[in-house]
Specification:
Length: about 525
């Protein structure tokens, strides 16, 4: 009888361990300032004749010569070469072509982690989330549900959500943290790295070090037979960036170290994602792991700068082919604008999601960065008591839904800068008025939009909004406000109702926000 009880206990224990090992896991990857078309799986949106870089005149000049067109095409080839691991995941999952984030990194990450509009608690722009501010400690983070359910939870990389009491990742539901709390940090020799609450020494390229920490975390999950939630919060390809390790530049080998640097950073990022995927496969957890990928906002504005190499005292002399482009190509593809802008190039980002046993393909369903956490919780079979606004798209990933065709999303930010106007012909008067002032925080202004169905209503302060059919005109060229006044009126009313449910900014210019309430 005693032997029988022992055998039954062993069987039950073994079953429990198997059940624990097969529990759903989540790998959430967020890149920093990655252009919409800086993934091979999104390159079809990067027709060279429709690109809208900030220095478009340089691109137009390049495309007039055979050498120039060849150089542009080479950049496309570099993207494919740089993102093979990410593209492999994208090919097995669903690529979302209408995925929206904030125009700057802080609010995007706040929306991601709280699963709601950050304007609900007074965070509109980077000032509310930088320089020791952050998401108020009173605002809960749904990731706590994973921790409460016995998951190991780890963040590796950029936090940017506060460092005061109650704001640290270890206070927000993460048992393991390696990274930094600021908009950016040095990618070599950073003095701002922490391992949980203890200062950590930088060792080599930051992305490599983040990955080593994440791999150690997975080792402990395997040893403890615990399911995991990983937030791999990358620093790439955000500038300012020194040259990545030479092996990553050699993998691109374009003939220009400027391009080798940019695409080499992407390659290094992708390579390290591949290392995590290999570890998860070795653990036997691939068929139990959801993978989510997005960028926090659009490509950083401006032409490429010569990347400094902070590891060397002497200045490297640039080596260029005459035809190599000096603009971000393919960058944000056919979208107008970039980071800091409410144009599509600032707020529509590449995103894909893979779920074991799910469908593969492409979806035009309207999704938002605040949807990622509810989707992850849904996959894990968990719930949160916190009020969230994000909507799980797990049914879509399983082929059980095509998304909500009537969904409407909103955004408002209070630190738009001159390039946010992006030279649109109908904004010239505002552009000139803004540029006549000195660039300082008092010169910032509000920018907002409403996205519903095929429509996007966009405006600055309380000026007359512009209306675009972004399904037919993703470059936001043709303002249709005069042709569809009823659509403008309806969307404007929806925005007014929404903005009146938000809180005043706890940092920044309250008067800018008040203009939107008038």
């Amino acid at each position: 009888m005693k032997i029988l009880k022992t055998l039954l206990l062993a069987v039950c224990l073994g079953s429990a361990l198997i059940a624990e090992a097969s529990r759903p896991n989540v790998l959430l990857i967020l890149s920093d300032d990655q252009g919409y078309c800086e993934l091979g799986s999104f390159l079809k949106f990067a027709d060279p004749d429709r690109l809208q870089p900030q220095k478009k005149d340089q691109l137009v000049e390049m495309l007039q010569t055979a050498d120039g067109r060849e150089a542009v095409q080479a950049c496309y080839d570099m993207v494919r070469k740089a993102t093979t691991n990410l593209d492999a995941i994208a090919s097995k999952g669903v690529r979302f072509t209408n995925f929206y984030a904030a125009p700057t990194c802080g609010p995007s990450r706040a929306s991601l982690m709280t699963a709601k509009y950050p304007q609900r608690f007074g965070a509109y722009s980077n000032p509310e989330l930088s320089d020791g501010q952050g998401v108020p400690a009173s605002v809960g983070f749904p990731v706590q549900a994973f921790a409460d359910a016995g998951y190991r939870t780890g963040i590796f990389g950029k936090w940017h959500l506060g460092r005061k009491a109650g704001q640290h990742p270890n206070d927000r539901g993460f048992d393991t943290y390696f990274g930094y709390d600021r908009a950016h940090t040095d990618k070599y020799d950073s003095p701002h790295l922490y391992r949980n609450r203890t200062k950590a020494k930088a060792e080599g390229w930051l992305c490599d070090q983040m990955t080593e920490e994440a791999l150690d975390f997975l080792d402990s999950c395997e040893a403890e037979e615990k399911p995991f939630f990983i937030y791999f919060s990358l620093s790439e390809p955000k500038p300012p960036s020194p040259l990545p390790p030479q092996r990553y530049m050699d993998a691109i080998d374009s003939g220009s170290y400027v391009l080798d640097s940019h695409f080499g950073s992407l390659y290094g990022m992708d390579y390290n994602v591949g290392r995590l995927l290999e570890k998860i496969e070795a653990m036997g957890a691939t068929e139990h792991t959801m993978i989510l990928f997005a960028s926090d906002n659009g490509l950083n504005n401006g032409i490429w700068r010569e990347p400094p190499d902070y590891r060397k005292k002497d200045k490297m002399k640039p080596i260029h082919k005459a035809a190599w482009p000096r603009v971000p190509i393919p960058g944000n593809g056919h979208f107008r604008g970039a980071k800091w802008s409410a144009w599509e190039g600032g707020v529509r980002t590449p995103m894909f999601a893979y779920v074991p046993g799910g469908v593969a393909g492409e979806s035009a369903a309207l999704q938002h960065i605040m949807d990622l956490m509810p989707t992850a919780l849904d996959f894990a079979g968990l719930e949160t008591d916190l009020p969230v606004e994000g909507i799980s798209f797990l049914p879509l990933l399983k082929g059980e839904s095509v998304g909500d065709s009537k969904r409407t999303i909103f955004w408002a930010h209070l630190d738009a800068i001159p390039m946010a106007l992006d030279g649109h012909s109908e904004l010239q008067a505002m552009d000139q008025a803004f540029k006549s002032k000195r660039r300082k925080q008092t010169d910032y202004f509000a920018s907002w939009y409403v996205r519903s169905g095929k429509w996007k209503l966009i405006a600055w302060n309380r000026d007359i909004p512009l209306l675009f059919d972004v399904s037919a005109d993703p470059g936001e060229y043709k303002n249709l406000a005069a042709q569809y006044p009823e659509v403008v009126s309806d969307l404007h009313k929806e925005f007014s109702a929404w903005i009146h449910t938000t809180e005043q900014p706890y940092v920044g210019k309250k008067e800018i926000w008040l203009q939107l309430l008038q």
